[in-house]
């Protein structure tokens, strides 16, 4: 019985690899979605909106990102305590990187190296050279480090610690903390605007998003949300993405099942888009025509048309989709 | 492969700590072994040092204890220690320091003397896990000492009602909160007809009172009620006695009120009818359980396991919450002045993340921490209450326990 399961599993894996090899090298953009609860990564074709492939990953894949050229996909395999690197074209595991214990989220330096990894269980940010897997530094931060952002010029890395309720600003030249900003409860994500003039930090339990001025590291405004018919407790901001032109920010609101559209000039919420259940993270297509949201409790991703601010489709993926990155 | 990496990691970490001048202040007692050993401790002003004391009086042991439920020696205290570590990790960024001193008092001892000793030693925040009468004695004796008392153990509703005290905050959920949490779930399942089995102790009677009150509040019916009077240890004869004792006609759910754990665990599978069991055993309303893992709870569980080598129990969690509640307020006040901390704990924007999806906060009318309650059996957390659909004009959390319009609490 057991042997048979194993056998069929490996056959399936072989079949998967065969299909992967057969994938056209230059296809339409593809979304890579980490599925936390079934230890896989779904690869979605952004033109047909079909799942091309489901790739088996390490245990509990969460944070997911891509190299600047889009050729490599990095996945935090949280329960295997490592970062896995996949070839975005062949979907093959190229190598694994050290990560420190329980890696949850990470951010790549804009140059593509190094990788800054939040070790949720260890109050630490681990800095790893992605070329040779060398440990560059370990930076002690607050309790349960999670969100990782980096300024577009690569000078500042920002980590949020979920239980300390701070955003820690790290000078990437020295790997030292230069500023600690107290925000509302359970900060999840730190995201810079592309011009580097705003830092957005979402607080899941506090229900707010703090917009911070990196010139002073002071909070300019805390954005809060009100949705008719949705209890305030259910509004839990997590994923944040800002358009390249800096005009709009999209904020995933967790169990409110909405993505908020915020005007980055006025910092007012302009619209709420209904997506799947417990929306977690967001990712743009390279041309920013579409935004993809991972919906952890409905096991799907929602496709949002950025120009019209409408949800156009949902695509079923694996169990508990967590993060998403889209490459050309 | 693993070894050199860890060694290097440790060295780099320590170097960074020193470089960044984030060195931790010296921590005197063995209760707090945080992170790396401090190198050059920057002096921290007394006004930024939080001295937290814990008094735990050991409860009277039950007639027998199931081997799986043997209470560990550091029950509760270990949670306070983890809370202290978490506070230190956060507070170092703002140059805040925290110290923890714990006093364990024997069952026959005097917890007031222990509390007074802690106050004389400069502790201005004291966690109490003591019987309700002792809690009132301590609260009244320390009334004029500018000390914040935090009840982490006693579930008695009267401490939040007619016997409430202005210098006491309550982290432990009240019995009313626990049984309301259970009632909401059973009502949402349409298991409305309850058979109530009550133990022999006064506490069991109080738990039963709370069950009756919750039944009325949410529209369940107690169709039968019995007192457990089969003696202290009925394990050997349960298979013959329990079927006879549970022949009360039709019911949906057997609710058991047995806080000592004398008989509740021998009821399942021995009842006359095939009905599930809830209350102090079976499906239990609790503040915490080792099977809780959503909303980041697994991180707290794993931090606790790493520290103490065992699973985190409700009293551990409540003590962690108590220490963390003070620490969280302290990050905002940046001062250990009890008056400022107290004002922060009661301010409308105080929100305490407690790994249950929504923030906890204190009810101003009775100082009770409002927080979701788990419904769990031995190996799974089934759900958290409040249940969907139980609405409230302010927060659904206030559907659990005594709400403002019903409060009997009058702080002097």
UniProtKB/TrEMBL annotation, chain A:
Keywords: Signal. The lineage of its organism: Bacteria, Pseudomonadati, Pseudomonadota, Alphaproteobacteria, Hyphomicrobiales. This is PQQ-dependent catabolism-associated beta-propeller protein. InterPro entries: Host-pathogen_enzymatic-act (IPR051200), N2O_reductase_N (IPR011045), PQQ_b_propeller (IPR022456), WD40/YVTN_repeat-like_dom_sf (IPR015943), YNCE-like_beta-prop (IPR048433), YVTN_b-propeller_repeat (IPR011964). Coiled coil: none annotated. The keyword Signal applies. The keyword Signal applies. Residues 41-187 form the YNCE-like beta-propeller domain. PANTHER family: DIHYDRO-HEME D1 DEHYDROGENASE, PROTEIN NIRF. Residues 1-27 form the signal peptide.
